[in-house]
Structures are given as structure tokens and as C-alpha cells.
Amino acid sequence: MKKVIDLTYDIHEGMTTFNSRWHPLVSLKQLGRIPFEGRETKEISLGTHTGTHVDAPLHFIQGGSSIDEIPIERLIGKVTIIDFSHLKENGAVTKKMLENLQLENNILFKFGWGKYWGLKRFYKDYPFISKEAAQYLIDINTNIIAMDTPSPDDSRIKLDGDLLGTEADSPIHKMFLSSGIILVEYIANLDSISVLDGWNILIMPLRIKGADGSPARVCLFK
């Protein structure tokens, strides 16, 4: 191994999290202290989709597999990094953009969206994957789809009210997860990579029994 690049955001109080009633803020509470208890210990409270994280099928598919049921051998391997940072706000990845590319079964989309990390803008107007492109990725037996945005879905879909839980709620998530594709969101540090070829990816979510997802340490290596 000659080079490793960490693609993981730090977890800390006050960090960017999805603004919804079902997603908590990050809390770090001091427990043990070296001057008093002889050791440092903290209590951590956070959602399963905090920071750089993996979505298990259970996230959207009732009865789907949980994060601890994803075989570890599926979380490491050669990866194709696709630079779509030229896409404009709300730009869609289409099937035509993908079908002439030589793709590994692990794909990392670089949209250049990390520049908005820490801002409310991070959750608005990011590029997304069209339904035809999603179906193409399913048809070619893609294993992992990772991205530096919060979601593969169109951010203009309003996740509130009567829409929640319907077919129109996060349709690309549902297409990928129902097909067994592993989703990795909030990828960091992609702007530090100038040469996109020749990388492998390693994804290590916490093995939380029965969970719908987990924060993960993610890196590229060659």
C-alpha cells in the first residue's frame, strides 16, 4: 500500500446533520476524567445517518437487511471515481453519461459538493442520479455507490407532509437499496484527489445489530 486518503468527516457537536424531526443532533457528554476517575470516557449520541455513513437496505425497505448483515468482503475493492463536478445545481446524472464508461462494480461520484460542507447549502440543489441512470447501474450489477452529496435523490423533493412514505419519497434510494446496492453518503476530501484512476475503496461501518445504517470510516488506497 503506497497511499491512503481518508474520505471521512469528523464527528463533533454542532456538526452538519440532516434537518428533520427524526434525525438528532450530535451530543458528546463527558463521563470519566483523568484527574478524578483516572480515565477519559465520553457518551456519544448520534443518528445512524450522521456524517460519512452507510445506508443498509433496512433504511427504506421494510424487512430489508441491516447494517450488520452486509458481508465485509462487499465493503472493499477496486473503485471507479467519476468526476461530475461540472454538473450545475440540480443537474442529473443520466444513463447516457454512464453507458460508455468502463465501470468497476464499486463507483464513487465526485460532484465537488464538499465545498458546501458545514453550510445549510449542503442539503440544497446538489446533483442527483436520474431514474434511468439508477436503473442502468442496477442492471450492470453495481455493488457500491458512494457520493460526496447527502443523497442520490433530487433535493427538490420535499420530505414532509403526505409525501413521506409514498413512492415519490426518495425513489432513487429505494431503487438502489431494494436491489442490494450499498449506499455511502457524505464522502469527504475528494478535492484532494487529482489522479482518479487506480484506487481501491475501504468502508467500515459500525457493526450495529439490526441497524438501518451506520457512520463509517471510509478511505481510498493504492
Map the helices and strands.
Layout: E1 4-6, E2 27-30, H1 34-37, E3 42-45, E4 53-55, E5 76-78, E6 80-83, E7 92-93, H2 95-98, E8 106-110, E9 128-129, H3 131-139, E10 144-147, H4 171-178, E11 182-185, E12 200-205, E13 213-221
Parallel strand pairs: 6-8, 7-9, 8-10, 10-11
Antiparallel strand pairs: 1-13, 2-3, 4-11, 4-13, 5-12, 12-13
3D architecture notes:
- The chain is an alpha/beta fold.
- It has one domain: 3-Layer(bba) Sandwich (Glucose Oxidase, domain 1).
- The chain is 11% helix and 24% strand.
- The protein is built from four helices and 13 strands.
- It has helices spanning 34-37, 95-98, 131-139, 171-178; strands at 4-6, 27-30, 42-45, 53-55, 76-78, 80-83, 92-93, 106-110, 128-129, 144-147, 182-185, 200-205, 213-221.
- The longest helix is centred in the middle third of the chain and has 9 residues, at 131-139.
- The protein is globular.
CATH topology: Glucose Oxidase, domain 1
CATH architecture descriptor text: 3-Layer(bba) Sandwich
Main structural class: alpha/beta
User: What general outline do the C-alpha atoms trace?
Assistant: globular
| CATH class group | Alpha Beta
Biggest sheet descriptor:
9 strands, mixed
Kindly report the name of the CATH homologous superfamily: Putative cyclase
Q: Report the radius of gyration as a whole number of Å.
A: 18 Å
Q: Give start-end ranges of low-pLDDT stretches.
A: none
Roughly what is the average pLDDT, rounded to an integer? 95
